[in-house]
Design a protein that fits this description.
13 helices, two-stranded antiparallel ribbon, 44% helix, alpha/beta, eight-stranded parallel β-sheet, 10 strands
Length: 348
């Protein structure tokens, strides 16, 4: 599949910039898939105004592969995206593992109507830039790709500007999720993009949960010869946006309409980052980042519990109190009322 085969209206959603929640995994108390709540989450994101869904990614838990849940969770989200709303929805499937596994996953994703694969390189630790590019090019020959700069704290690897230049030169690359949680490395992606002259074809998305608002507000200025090229991060593909999603959609729209950046808007960056520190368990180096998002959804009644496939993956000591703190500090950032009004319909 080539990116030219992606429906034009879906490609337009991607390039304009949109909210793409990284879809969590709904499990029951026996750590088995709860299809009703899995569907309810997708319905929530769609009704909140998300332009896409990312499924089978870090927030969905990489262990779904060993648990035999990769195809079932992709299928459920794709069915809801087609039946629940009558508008274009971008479907991004997480791809991981060595080349053969990533290619097999891309075949599964394509069969369920996914438009692109977001390629995790975590399993390629120790590979050279040449080996990484060969891997990416082989997968891109099967399926349009979203690049993924994952922060090292949760398994990512350092990827220099040279990697990003060569990655952006792969014709079937359509976007990059920038999530190293590091300004220098975020700039490396922009440098690679500009050096590849791919800024019209490859759309940048933030995954930097520590810097969401400023990533969306501030252009990245890069020199290409004597010219200064300014590129924008157009949207977000974020685990953080799997909670309080309607507010995230409103935030992106507000940023899009901002003509002059005021102090109020700049201050919002630290508020969003503070909320994220609780959800993502920064105090314990992100150990509770997945259960932290689950806990917000549990409090809203969308999930039954915070269970993960790994029984040892749970809220860290003091994390629930931190979530209490940010919920009390920023009531204007939650969408509890919206969820309350619609939850029964989503769970029906």
């Amino acid at each position: 599949m080539h990116f030219s085969q992606i429906p034009a209206d879906v490609l337009e959603v991607l390039r304009r910039g949109t909210v793409i929640p990284a879809h969590p995994l709904a499990l029951d108390a026996n750590r088995r898939l709860d299809p009703r709540r899995q569907r309810a989450l997708a319905r929530y994101y769609l009704d909140a105004g998300s332009g896409g869904l990312a499924v089978g990614v870090h927030a969905t838990q990489f262990a779904i592969r060993e648990a035999g849940l990769y195809e079932p969770v992709l299928k459920l989200a794709a069915e809801e995206a087609r039946s629940w709303v009558k508008r274009p929805v971008l479907l991004v499937a997480g791809l991981s593992g060595k080349t053969d596994q990533a290619k097999k996953e891309s075949v599964v994703a394509r069969a369920h109507g996914y438009h692109a694969g977001m390629l995790s390189l975590a399993s390629m630790k120790g590979a050279s830039v040449d080996e990484l590019i060969a891997h990416c090019a082989a997968v891109a020959a099967e399926f349009p790709l979203v690049g993924f700069y994952l922060q090292p704290a949760v398994g990512g690897i350092h990827l220099p500007a040279e990697f990003w230049r060569r990655f952006c030169e792969i014709e079937n690359v359509i976007a990059i999720k920038i999530a190293p949680f590091n300004r220098y490395r975020t700039l490396d992606v922009a440098k690679g993009l500009v050096a590849a002259r791919a800024e019209q074809r490859v759309t940048l998305y933030t995954g930097n949960d520590d810097h969401i608002v400023l990533d969306l507000l501030v252009p990245l200025a890069v020199k290409r010869g004597a010219d200064e090229i300014r590129v924008r991060i157009k949207g977000g593909l974020l685990g953080h946006w799997s909670v309080w999603t309607k507010r995230a959609v409103e935030l992106l729209e507000k940023i899009r309409k901002t003509e002059s950046i005021d102090a109020e808007m700049l201050a919002l960056d630290s508020k969003v980052t503070d909320a994220n520190s609780a959800f993502f368990d920064v105090a314990h180096d992100f150990a509770g980042c997945i259960p932290g998002c689950h806990e917000v959804l549990r409090r809203q009644g969308l999930l039954e519990g915070t269970w993960c496939l790994d029984p040892d993956e749970r809220l860290s000591p003091g994390q629930a109190a931190e979530i209490d703190r940010v919920c009390a500090a920023y009531p204007e950032m939650n969408d509890d009322a919206f969820v309350r009004e619609n939850r029964a319909r989503w769970l029906s």
